[in-house]
Each structure stands twice: as structure tokens, then as C-alpha cells.
Amino acid sequence: LGVDPNRIAAGGGSAGGHLAAAVATLDGFDEKGEDLAISARPNAVVLFNPALDLTPNAFSKAFREKRYVGFAKRWGTKPENLSPTHHVNRGVPPTIIFHGKSDTTVPYAQAEAFARAMKQVGNRCQLVGFEGEQHGFFNYGRNRNKSFIATLRQADQFLASLGYLRGKPSIESFVTESRR
Predict the structure, then answer these.
(1) 176: Cβ–Cβ under 8 A, 6 or more apart, which residues?
(2) What count of other Cβ atoms lies within 10 Å of the Cβ of residue 124?
């Protein structure tokens, strides 16, 4: 397919962001019989409002009371075992995080703690906070696509800085088309 196996980026928003960060940080969840010589780790990570710490205290009291009940039982393991923040070590791929500073679903503090942990061990991590924005602020169709365009433009620039992309950010053609 012409895919460079050394330029694989994982990304996602909310739970998808958690999954991308988990693939980049967690060990021990490979399938039995899987060829461990082929790494499942991405080479870069792009996250949008990701859940990075699944421990109860990483969420608001209201969230814990309403939605957190029974999570650990459903997961089959302790929340720490599935929390990327608790598994940051040297060598986690370069990461960019877009997070709403007013997110009540996944508090901004989770993104701050992850970025701090990444930098403490010498990993590249760029946290881009969006003042006044809630969970999912980056989704297409919200606020005349201002945050959608801003986050994708910055994601493009981040990937270009790693040598994964060249030229004008691809979002520019979308912006031009959507204004017609």
C-alpha cells in the first residue's frame, strides 16, 4: 500500500483519544499468538479531548457519581492499568493534545498531567488548550467549524514538523471549499 511503517500516527477524540494514547503507552494487552516483532505502537499521536487518567479522582464528583460506577468491573482491571498517564516513560511517541479548558467530561487537568509527565522523561508533548471550550469542541459542524479547522491545521503542522507531511496544510483546501 506504500505506507511507511515508521510514520504511523494514531489519533482520536475522547474515548478514541484514550485508545490512541493507550496504544502508545500501555504494554501487556497483546493478543495471544500475536507477532510481537511487529510493533503496534504508533510513531506519533494526535489527541482531541482524550481521557488520559481513568482513576476516579481524575474526574469530577458529579461524573463519578453518574457515569463512573462499575467501570472497573466492566474493564476487568484496575483503572491505573488502563490510564496512559500512569504509563508514560521515555520513548512514548511525539504527541499533540487539543483540549477544551472548560471540559467537564474529561477535565483539562488530565491533559496537563499527561503533558507534564511526558516532558519530565524527555518526550515531546504539545498541549494546545482552548479557552472556554467543552468536550467535543473540535467536531465538524460546531461553532462554524472554527475549532475544527484550527485543530486540524495545527495537527497538520505537528505532523509536518515530524516530516510526515509536506506542503500547504490539507485543511486549507477544505476551508476554501467550505466558504464557496
Answers:
(1) none
(2) 15
The half-sphere exposure of 15 on its side-chain side, counting CA atoms within 13 A, is 0
Spell out the alpha helix ranges (H) of the chain: 15-25, 61-63, 71-75, 108-120, 146-161, 171-178
Under a CB-based contact definition with an 8 Å cutoff, are residues 85 and 113 in contact? yes
Residue 59's CB is within 10 A of a number of other CB atoms, namely 23
pLDDT digits (tens, 9 = 90+) for 96-116: 999 999 999 999 999 999 999
Residues 6+ apart with CB under 8 A from 64: 56
User: What is this structure's pTM?
Assistant: 0.89
| Residue count (the chain) | 180
As a whole number of angstroms, the distance between CA 47 and CA 19 comes to 10
Edge to edge, the sheet with strand 125-130 lists 9-13, 44-48, 95-100, 125-130
Q: What are phi and psi of 114, to 5 degrees?
A: -65, -45
First and final CA of the chain: distance in angstroms?
34
Q: How many CB atoms lie within 10 A of CB 44?
A: 22
Backbone angles phi, psi at 127, to 5 degrees: -105, 125
**pLDDT 10s digits, 24-58:** 999 888 888 888 888 889 999 999 999 999 887 88
